[in-house]
Specification:
Order of helices and strands: HHHHHH
Number of strands: 0
Shape: globular
Structural class: mainly alpha
Largest sheet: none
Length: about 100
């Protein structure tokens, strides 16, 4: 975000510390502007490779229990793409419910 501030600079005001806090707590929102940047794409690919190697179900259940839902750990997916997709779906549910 610091290397390419065009997407957030006009939205935030404050001291350096306040700007750091605002950038840190809005990444979920602002990341949509950076997905196509080569460095972000490369980092995401590396993350997916690293996570695909081996995700113990217990670890997934411990840190992403909301994604696993009521499923026992043996059925909690260890596929990072599925976990990411489910997490995004959970994040969007309040918006879908508000529009219903």
């Amino acid at each position: 975000m610091l290397e390419n501030p065009v997407y957030w600079q006009s939205h935030y005001r404050g001291s350096d510390a306040e700007l750091r806090f605002l950038r840190s707590h809005s990444k979920r929102d602002r990341i949509r502007y950076y997905w196509r940047h080569p460095a972000v794409a490369t980092a995401f690919k590396r993350l997916m490779v690293n996570l695909s190697a081996s995700l113990p179900p217990e670890l997934v259940e411990t840190h992403m229990s909301e994604v696993c839902g009521a499923e026992p750990s043996a059925h909690c997916p260890a596929d990072p793409a599925i976990l990411i997709r489910r997490r995004i779906q959970l994040s969007l549910q309040p918006y879908f419910q508000a529009c219903a």
